Amino acid sequence: MLLKIKETRLRFQLPRPTVLALATLALSVLAAGPAAANPRSLPFTYPYATLPCGGFEMEQYIDAIPLQVTRTLPGGGSEKVTTLAFQLQTEFELGLTDRLELGAYLVFDQPAAAERPALGFKGSKQRLRYRFAEAGQWPVDLAIYFEAVEYRDEIELEQKVILGKRFGKLSTMANLTLEQEYEWLGEAEIEAIFAPSGGVTYDVSPSVTVGAEYWGNLYDGYRHYAGPTAMFQKGDVWMSGGVYARLDDQDPALGDPYGRLWIRLLGGVGF
After folding, report:
1. Which CATH architecture has domain 9-270?
2. Half-sphere exposure of residue 21, counting CA atoms within 13 Å on the CB side?
3. Strand-pair partners of 68
4. Exposure string (b/e) for 38-55, b if CB count within 10 Å is 16 or more?
5. Can you tell me the distance from the alpha carbon of 253 to that of 68, in angstroms, rounded to the nearest whole number?
């Protein structure tokens, strides 16, 4: 049987929950009041700062990854189609003390496929972040982070060292992350992953911050990305985003969850 492969076609369609999340974040930024939030100027890198005791914040993540999949044609054969995979995370943060912060996530995903599947519930996450001193007291601001993940096909543990340093309007941040994943489907094995990230930001104004960020994933080959970032803040509401190009020379195969481009939007509102 002869298998026909036609040219790549683009099939980008935002799921309705993603459109609603984007609209909500945009309207929140326009309607914000006095500042009370803990913004994320680098979408993949956690900052050193934590919420104050009793502080509460809600954050929304939106990841969009263009990926190649195969679609079967009505007359036989197949064609390559570039479509978007989505992951949405809703996080609730609470300041337990002035230095200890609790976070809980609900995670939803929509895999890349020629026929668009429904957005489904992927699982939940819980994490703690603790900072050791006030900003500037130590030569480098230091915090630690612990996370537990319960997904439909795996459980994970994550440990993170958070480093930061501010030089006036310029800030540098780095995260050194170790992950242990146990997948009970398939081979049911434990995987250890090293996932560093970091970047530099510059405050153009009290409301606008621009930067550049790198993040990577070291397991079964090394995947790493870098790209520009921007954050807009008005009062206790903020929105940030980054567009990241893949830097390694691995060519993503059909069905590879890591594409050549990765887009992340992130927003939050403090209470």
Report:
1. Beta Barrel (2.40)
2. 24
3. 82
4. bbbbbbbbbbbbbbeeeb
5. 8
Phi, psi of 79 (to 5 degrees): -140, 155
269 touches 35 (CB < 8 A): no
Q: What per-residue confidence (pLDDT) applies to 73?
A: 74
| H or E element at residue 18 | helix 16-30
Q: 60, 24 in Cβ contact below 8 A?
A: yes
- Cα separation, 233 vs 28, in Å, equals 10
Helix locations, 57-193, DSSP H: none
CA separation for the pair 233, 217 (Å, rounded): 29
Which tens digit of pLDDT belongs to each residue from 229-239? 999 999 899 99
* Domain spans, the chain: 9-270
Token digits of residue 178: 């170790």
CA 36 to chain centre: 22
Q: Give the separation between CA 261 and CA 250, rounded to whole angstroms.
A: 13
Lowest-confidence region among 85-89, 164-168, 221-225, 234-238: 221-225
- Structure token pair of residue 168: 């006036």
- State the DSSP code for 236: T
Closest CA to 139 of 96, 113, 172, 114: 172
The Cα-based distances of 132 to 35, 167, 177 in angstroms read 24, 19, 18
Are 51 and 58 in contact by the 8 Å Cβ rule? The answer is: no
In degrees, to the nearest 5, what angle opens at C-alpha 197 toward C-alphas 193 and 203? 165
Percentage with pLDDT > 90 across the chain? 64
Work out the end-to-end distance of the chain between its first and last CA atoms, rounded to an integer number of angstroms.
Answer: 62
